[in-house]
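Input record (one chain):
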Amino acid sequence: MKTRNHILKLSILLILLACKQGSKIPNKSEERILKVTVAFAGYGCEGFCPFEAISVDSSLKLKYWGDQFAFKRGSFCKQVTNQIWDSIKTNFQKFVISGLDSSKITITDSPEMELYIKTTKGEYAFSKNTGKMSTRDTDILEWFQEIKSRSDDLKPCNYTPFETTIQFPK
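The corresponding structure, as predicted from the sequence alone:
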């Protein structure tokens, strides 16, 4: 009888510990985004898709690198507003929570894309042809891609390495 009581108490204790451990599973929607980098490459394109990378971090610094068919060639930097940074965090939280969505329709003449997101709890990296992505995902990436050209205040700056590599033509 004593053994049965000890086993019962031990079982209850283990169940309670397991439940407590389960409550420590991180909630991805609570992660704060610290940096977003998106790179595009013309591989897969039949036309003039750019080779470029755009990165924005929590210090509000935008870094841009462009090469063949890009908006500008070279390395450039500028500051973005808090409003733009808040929009970036809101839009890219979707990728942290659920990743990239695929499209049922594949468009063959589309650039390759590499996405890197740094959060308070880790890093996320994705790579895909944009022609195989959902419209919602490509809309977010196109919106982000256009941030660099929303004003004329891109200034040349020293090259700073990106977390992505696809933007470099081979």
